[in-house]
């Protein structure tokens, strides 16, 4: 299989070590009858990330974690594959799939190099997962390879402003002023963060995303910038609700493979 890229190896160790912290959240999400998305739990009825009827569709979740998004798609009729970098996360996904009687194909692997043939899927999605933990210059072309012509990719992750406004030392909370260049490196290494040390994440400017989509062979269908609900309180991953009402903390891209 060869040596893993540094960020893949780092993130695998990070997520294997903290997978136990996400078991309860995964169980809650598996029990939901309707999806909610992102840190602020935005209802599917507002964001429309999934087709209402996925009967006959082949779908893949890139960075599936505990597998709840894969389960939501399977319950809508899709034939679903989930791939994740963390074996420990997949153990939870496998247990919950068996417990709920949901058929999923689960693969331990890197979403930048999925062991599936070209044009294997009609629909691909990532809620965080590959959307922030994989290098977009690798995983976006890989998603394009996996999708049939006309297939759709949807992904939700941190808005670029989150990285730009995050203190350089990784302390919380993020600020209302820029802490690093908007046009800086697209790689954020949080291993030595002052608060909640993490793995290696990725983020692009919006012009870079659009250029990447165009050169890869995707057309943009939609972009949503997520605002925290009016009644949201507290802090999510170092982001205060008041901040996320004034500035977008998350985004959702929907793109379609040309051809």
UniProtKB/TrEMBL annotation:
SUPFAM superfamilies in alphabetical order: S-adenosyl-L-methionine-dependent methyltransferases
CDD domains on file: AdoMet_MTases (cd02440)
Superkingdom per UniProt: Bacteria
Keywords: Methyltransferase, Transferase
Any Pfam family matching the protein: Methyltransf_11
Domain (Methyltransferase type): residue spans on this chain: 61-155
GO function terms (MF aspect): methyltransferase activity
Entry's Gene Ontology BP terms: methylation
Annotated PANTHER family: 2-METHOXY-6-POLYPRENYL-1,4-BENZOQUINOL METHYLASE, MITOCHONDRIAL, METHYLTRANSFERASE
Record-given protein name: Class I SAM-dependent methyltransferase
